[in-house]
Amino acid sequence: MAFRNAISTKFLSRSSVFGARSMSSWWRSVEPAPKDPILGVTEAFLADPSPDKVNVGVGAYRDDNGKPVVLECVREAERRIAGNLHMEYLPMGGSVKMIEETLKLAYGENSDLIKDKRIAAVQALSGTGACRLFADFQKRFRPDSQIYIPVPTWSNHHNIWRDAQVPQRTYHYYHPESRGLDFASLMDDIKNAPSGSFFLLHACAHNPTGVDPSEEQWREISYQFKAKGHFAFFDMAYQGFASGDPERDAKSIRIFLEDGHLIGIAQSYAKNMGLYGQRVGCLSVLCEDEKQAVSVKSQLQQLARPMYSNPPVHGALIVSNILGDPDLKNLWLKEVKVMADRIIGMRAALRENLEKLGSPLSWEHITDQIGMFCFSGMTPEQVDRLIDQYHIYMTRNGRISMAGVNTGNVKYLANAIHDVTNSG
Ligand code: LMR
User: Fold this and answer.
1) How far is the CA of 54 from the centre of ligand 1 (A)?
2) Final residue belonging to a domain, choices 329, 363, 380
3) For the Aminotransferase class I/classII large domain, which residue ranges apply (predicted)?
């Protein structure tokens, strides 16, 4: 040690060793990251001292008093877990029980695919983690592939496949003039994509548009996927929020399964169980047979190991306690419906208030669209005015999280929307 000190003092002066410049040089080129288009809205909302402020930005359910909700089924599961809780690691692939119950929701209670063990599935860090794990898997085993993403989509989809270094292409989805699905262009894009392309599909309650294909359209999409040999990866973040019934909301996936596709699915309990911060979800990949499923699962685990080793235990315990008990599962199904119905009610109230104000614009799409979001059609400038003048916070693409609308703020929101869409 003394020898090393002697060397360094001989060749370098103290000021050059400890100079402020050399000490701060590691991260000098790092610029601040741009604000997240969704979570940045929450930050701005929290920083606003106005008593009138309204947050219809992030897709997180609130009750009619604007308060976050812990479902009764979750509270009961927590009571059952308490005292019975261990803090051991889960296996790399997560909770076997949670995965078993989660697959039933997507593939069907009595699915032969589950019985035949053809599904490679791992617990994931909610829907985001499931998408990211799949994107990394895609990159590792189909390194030359790209992903087709709908326009528009949840902004984080772009980040996920970008960071996994999978090139992105887009496909038509929304038709701004009709505020509905651009089905003809969507089908053209599916037909024109190179055979064997990867497509990201929203299984239900499309985020941000609230526009889903009809059952008949899903059948046509599935048929065309088969003809082109495309791979469908479903992000199902809102199962239950489209119709109020998780079983009905899995229809798109069931159609693809009936047609014999090998698909991938990202599932999340953030929204439909209100387990936002617990980060509990599942990635599944349907394989040709059990042997392939074993290989795929082992590779998914190997991707997870250096990233987060194994997933968190608590949320998985909550989910498996609820879905593994028929009474608690029924309670959950009722509570999902209550949440979905409250949102449907708020859609009607928002439209009614806008119409009562004599808005010359059509607001039919508020009640036509489904799920947690209304894609209002407002411009980024109109959204800026809502924030500046009314302290109403939403994403700049005009997406309203209907989960943040309640009987106490719907009139205020309608007045403000009426003002910014009819002036300036
Ligand atoms: C949203 O779209 O608002 C949610 O999915 C929350 C998020 O993480 O962006």
Assistant:
1) 17
2) 329
3) 52-417
Q: 22 C-alpha vs ligand 1 centroid, how far in Å?
A: 40
Could you give the CA distance from residue 366 to residue 354 in angstroms, rounded to a whole number?
10
- The residue from 329, 362, 393 where one domain ends is 329
Name the catalytic one among 182, 189, 212, 235.
Answer: 235
Indicate the pTM of the whole model: 0.94
Is 218 an active-site residue? Answer: no
Query: Residue 352: which CATH number?
Result: 3.90.1150.10
Q: Tens of pLDDT along 396-409? A: 999 999 999 999 99
Q: Are 90 and 153 part of one and the same domain?
A: yes
The atom number, within ligand 1, closest to the CA of 57 reads: 3
pLDDT tens digits for 214-233? Answer: 999 999 999 999 999 999 99
| pLDDT of 2 | 47
List the residue whose alpha carbon is closest to atom 5 of ligand 1. Answer: 59
Q: What is the mean pLDDT of residues 198-213?
A: 98
Pocket of ligand 1 (CB under 6 A): 38, 58-59, 154, 156, 207
Whole-number pLDDT of residue 86: 80
Catalytic residue among 154, 161, 218, 363: 154
DSSP string over 331-399: HHHHHHHHHHHHHHHHHHHHHHHHHHTT-SS--HHHHHS-TTEEE----HHHHHHHHHHH-EE--TT-E
| For the CA of 401, the nearest atom of ligand 1 | 3
